[in-house]
Amino acid sequence: MTLLTETAGSEWWRSAVIYQIYPRSFADNNGDGMGDLPGITSHLSDLASLGIDAIWLSPFMTSPQKDAGYDVADYCDVDPIFGTMSDFDVMLKTAHTLGIRVIVDLVPNHSSDQHAWFQQALAAAPGSPERARYMFRDGQGPDGSLPPNNWDSVFGGSAWSRLTEPDGAPGQWYLHLFDESQPDFDWSNPEVREYFEGVLRFWLDRGVDGFRVDVAHGLIKMDGLPDYTPDPEGGSMGGDADDVPYWGQPAVHEIYREWHKLLATYDDDRALCAEAWLPTPEKTALWVRPDEMHQAFNFPYLVTEWDAVALRRVITESLRAFPGVGAPPTWVLSNHDVVRHASRLALTADNPQGDGIGPKSQGKPDPAVGLRRARAATTLMLALPGSAYIYQGEELGLPEAMEIPDDARQDPTWFRTNGERYGRDGCRVPIPWQSGAPAYGFNDTGASWLPQPEEWAGLTRDLQEADSESTLWLYRTLLAERRERGLGVGTLEWLEGFGDDVIAFRNDAVTVIVNIGAAPVQLPAGVVVTSSGPLEGAQLPVDTAVWLETV
Ligand code: GLC
């Protein structure tokens, strides 16, 4: 069965490999323990040599950092902890000179409570135009002391907080789907729409190549804000129900149609990528219909377990759904919100997205199994047609940091659930560059906003650079071969006869076989292009993937 032929166009984002930089943890130039823009600039040539096409930067805009920058106080400026606007311009120019496109994060669902608009809203009266930019409501009950509805915050606790009005009286409530420091905008207000068009233009005029749009399924809330009790199995950011009154409301698509038109007035194929946690590729594809966004993260793929049947199913569905609307499929295994895939794929207990792993978690993975599976999973992912996302540090095979002490934790999830859910700190730890150096070369002072695990001493980039069997070299080889063989714009054809536990397909001239079973698999004749681990003669060991050139 042949599944994907070329999608409609030749724009760069249809087949790009996009590397996510989490600025806090990538490289720290000034030694304060927090990564920064000059740190990024200084390592762009390392990314060019890795072979990626673009970078996406998590937010570096002005922010009190209550949610690691996803709480923006000024959308058109750089937070001093990351540097200055001219540091940004230098970074952008350097990236472009190296042939790397740059995508920035846009956070339109909510601002920080320190945003000028929210501060004005607090000072203004109920019913005022200042309050109409956010979701203020009166409380329920005779004295308004109950929240307006029963919605929970993604990070735990109620999604509503109550104000004390300027005169000292208990006042209205405001909605925050995330932390209480992240009030939701009211996107039915045209002023909010106009404001964000200005923000888009600001960054487009500076020369960015696109936006990753945060919580792109959340901007519009159902009229009347009806009560809703989420499916406990649904994960914090999505869920299966079609009737979730704050995710995936149809009117959200109008916003992206407007943005699509706005981007089209610029040259050079600027792109929008939706962070929309939806349960199926089919639903996710609604965000990338021809007049909407250009890409959407394939979270149904990310959450699929290490299981051949389930992976085949989600790949097939993705290759139908995205090209079905003229969009490229995308693939992603790790990001700053999920347990790193070198750990996640070997967990032995359920771990809902966003909960994280900490000292007391059950089902911790065997690190060797995790790494073997992660290498195989990436070897599979980078053979798939479409665009792929890589999260900083996965090219080093980094596992989740699972032993962060309680008093070092930073994720609001940890605080809002009184330590019941660890949250996402374990995938956000500053990455290791150099063995034997302070903070493993993250900076030269040894400071680090989250503690780095001791085991990372053996995973630094310089050590891996010198070892041709390393995960770094595996990524480099995969990226080079993918580019040279045009796999990103290829055609996938499933191969039969390898058994249920094996994934086998051809992407043009490359045959890809992944053994997810319990016994070695006999390989067909062919020349090995690369493999995620050593082969045993003509046998493919378990948890191993291979690319073969067959005739
Ligand atoms: C997105 C971000 C996550 C953030 C949340 C609220 O899911 O990826 O890190 O906490 O939105 O902005």
From TrEMBL:
EC category name: hydrolase
InterPro entries, A to Z: GH, GH13_cat_dom, O16G_dom_2
GO MF, one example: alpha-1,4-glucosidase activity
Any Gene Ontology biological process: oligosaccharide catabolic process
UniProt keyword S-adenosyl-L-methionine, yes or no: no
Region described as Disordered: 349-368
Record-listed E.C. numbers: 3.2.1.20
Organism superkingdom: Bacteria
Domain annotation Glycosyl hydrolase family 13 catalytic: ranges: 20-428
Pfam families the UniProt entry points to: Alpha-amylase
Classification via Gene3D superfamilies: Glycosidases (3.20.20.80), Oligo-1,6-glucosidase, Domain 2 (3.90.400.10)
Keywords: Glycoprotein, Glycosidase, Hydrolase
SUPFAM superfamilies linked: (Trans)glycosidases
Sequence similarity: Belongs to the glycosyl hydrolase 13 family.
Protein name: Alpha-glucosidase
